[in-house]
Each structure stands twice: as structure tokens, then as C-alpha cells.
Amino acid sequence: MTEPDDEAPGEPVAESTATEPIPAAADDDAADEVEGPRRRARRERAERREAQARAVAIEEARREAKRQARGRGAAPAKPVPRGAVRGLRLVLLSLLLIVVATALGCILYFTPVMSARSIIVTGIGAVTRDEVVNAAQVKLGTPLLQINTDSVADRVAAIRRVASARVQRQYPSALRITVVERVPVVVRDFPDGPHLFDRDGVDFATAPPPPALPYLDVDNPGPTDPATKAALAVLLALRPEIAAQVARISAPSVASITLTLADGRTVIWGTNDRTEEKAEKLAALLTRPGRTYDVSSPDLPTVK
Q: Comparing 49-58, 98-107, 191-200, 231-240, which segment has the lowest mean pLDDT?
């Protein structure tokens, strides 16, 4: 008789549950097989973008650090304002005008484009044109801008009979000299003949005096002599119709001025104080008959 088997027929045989560990490489391969090629490609692209972004950020940070170290800011350049553009245009235009004006001035100064081709003299009477032109010392053909008008006027005014002179450039080719001659106011005799004096006491001519010119009787006539200045101040203060009657004015001193009229009447003037007032009183007194008229005290004028 046979012995029964240890395992009953039809019953499953129990297997051991213990398993061996799977290697790491096997796990990665298994993960790759599970992830799939498309998902792996997307993941790799994302990783590359992140790495590139980190590299760019690092490079920008490095450049910014260099710029700050060199003192240059990272701020963007500001646009040029319109006002600055207009100002620059004005500056350029001003420079252009200066250049043009300088060039024109050089042409006029150094070339005979505008030169003195004629000299015009006005205001002369006793003084001749030749005297004025010779004193001016201006050579015809000289550029007008090279002529010093003040110097020319001073040379012309040095003529004895000339009181003042004015010199003007008349473009394009003329120089005008305007002369003011001295006018005789009084006359005084000297060994070489009668000398004519103007209102300033300047002895400007030795010549026969005009008719009815008053005679000046002072010791040292001249523009700086106090007696001369006082006598002329009295004569110039008189009304024209009264001054025309004066034949002689005597001033031994500034306090003893006397007028002698053409008809022989005498006017005691005294000092030249209150001259205008005395001249008014004298005009009224001369309407009265008499030989001596005293206005030395204008408050108490007298007739004798």
C-alpha cells in the first residue's frame, strides 16, 4: 500500500514571499519606461531654459557691478529737450553773424571799398577851406574806418579862428568837417595891432575889428584872467539893444566894472554880482535923461 504524499492533490503549493532588492540602475530604467519620451523631452527643455536664465541673470549682475564700479549709472539716456535744440541753433546763428560782420569789417577797414574820396567843409567864413583841409591831414583814398575822427577834429580846432570842429564819415566815400568859428566880442590894442577876443576871452585873431565892436580895457586880457571874465560876463548879460550901444568896457578889477556908451554916457556897474538884475534895471534907467547911471546897488539905482 502506498503512502499518501505530503501535499494533498489539488492544494496549491505555498511559495516564499521573500524578494531580492532591485538595483538603482534598474529603478531609473523603470522610471524612464514609465515617464515616456515626450515627457522626458519637455522636462529637459525646461531644465535648459532655467539654466540659461540663471546664466543670463549672472552675466547681467556682473555687468551692472562693473558699471557701478566705474561710476556710470545704468539709467537710460534722456532725450534732448526742445529748448536746448533752439538754444544751440541761436548760438550757431550768432556765431555765423559774428563771422560775417568780422569779414565785412575787415573788408571795409583794409580795402579802399569805402574810402575818403572827397572832403566836405562847412561853417567856414574867415577860415579858408585850404586851412581846414591842411589841418585835418587826411589823405584822399584812406579807408573811412581808418580815419580817427576825434583826432582830425582836434587838429582842425587848433586853428586860431576855430572854436570847435566836428568830423563825420559820410559813406560811401566822403568825410564831412563842420567848423564853428570864433565870433569877436571885444577888441584890444596891442603893439602889433588890434586883437580880437571871443566870448571866452580867447585872443583868436589880429585884424581890424568889425564896426562898433566894444573896446576891452583890462590889464591882462585872456581866458583865465578874472577881470576879463567878469567884464565879458557883464557884456553878455546886457540886452542886445543895450550891448550895441557899449563902446568901451573897463575892468581894473572884478569889483570896478564901468561901461562907456557910444554917446558918452557912463554906467557904473560895480561887481558882477546880480548881473541879470542889474541888466534889467539899466534898461529902465537908460530911458531917463542923464550922464551917469549907477546900478552898482540894484536895489537903489540912480541917474545923474
A: 98-107
- Which is higher by pLDDT, 134 or 81? 134
The Cα 250–Cα 252 span in angstroms is 6
Q: Tell me the DSSP string of 216-267.
A: EE-SS-STT-HHHHHHHHHHHHS-HHHHTTEEEEE-SSTT-EEEEETTS-EE
CA distance linking residue 70 with residue 59, whole number of Å: 17
- In percent, how much of the chain has pLDDT > 90? 61
For residues 217 and 221, what is the distance between their CA atoms, to the nearest angstrom?
8
For the record, the C-alpha cell of 53 comes out as: 536664465
Q: Is 242 buried (19+), middle (13-18) or exposed (0-12) by CB count in 10 A?
A: middle
**DSSP for residue 143:** B
Q: Grid coordinates representing 49?
A: 531654459
Q: What is the pLDDT of residue 55?
A: 83
User: What's the grid cell of residue 15?
Assistant: 511559495
Q: For 47-89, what is each residue's pLDDT tens digit?
A: 888 888 888 888 888 888 887 777 654 455 566 677 777 788 8
Q: What residues pair up with 106 in beta bridges, in sequence order? A: none
37 forms beta bridges with none
Contact indicator for 163, 185 with CB cutoff of 8 Å: no
- Cα 105 to Cα 145, 167, 286: the distances in Å are 9, 21, 65
Q: Give 85's DSSP letter.
A: H
Checking DSSP bridges between strand 266-270 and strand 292-294, what pairing results, if any?
Answer: parallel
pLDDT at residue 16 is higher than 80: no
Residue 205: φ, ψ to 5°: -160, 150
